[in-house]
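Quick start: read one record
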Amino acid sequence: MSGSPWLYVVLLGAAAIVYSLMLPKRKEQLTEFSTDTSQVEATMEHYMSEIERENLEIVELVAQIRTEAKAQRLSLQEQVTELRTRLSESDRSYAAQDMRIQLLERSFSVDTATAAENVARAEMLKQENEKSVPVNSASQSVRDRYADLFELHNQGKSMDAIAKALGIQRGEVQLILQLANKEEIFL
């Protein structure tokens, strides 16, 4: 057994040599693993930077969309305000036109009543004239009785201008012109 410690030393040396031979192979494997790991890390960093860049683009796009939406909303609000203003102006104009129509209707009804009174008065005067002085019918035509009126009418004056010039009402002028037209039809 005296040889046996040497045997242990030899065996231990052989094991150390085998271990030392195997050690560089493990380092190569570790180096290959660390190279693969660094490539994966680089790929992941590149991927993360791409995602971050895309996220920034999305944030900018959302901000741009918000700005455009805000501008569009303001534009629409201005249009609504303008349309409301126009609508209120139209309502006021409509009310004013309605008032004018009502006033014209009232005036027309007054003119019609005045015209009817004037017709009745003219008929009474006509009857009185026929009773008091018998005259031939040619000289008693409406055109002859109201020569001034027809002269102004032939000059192209309006009914209002004729009424003002002769000091009579517009309805009376209108009635006389109508009577003259009817008289011409019958003759």
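The CA atoms of residues 104 and 110 lie 10 Å apart.
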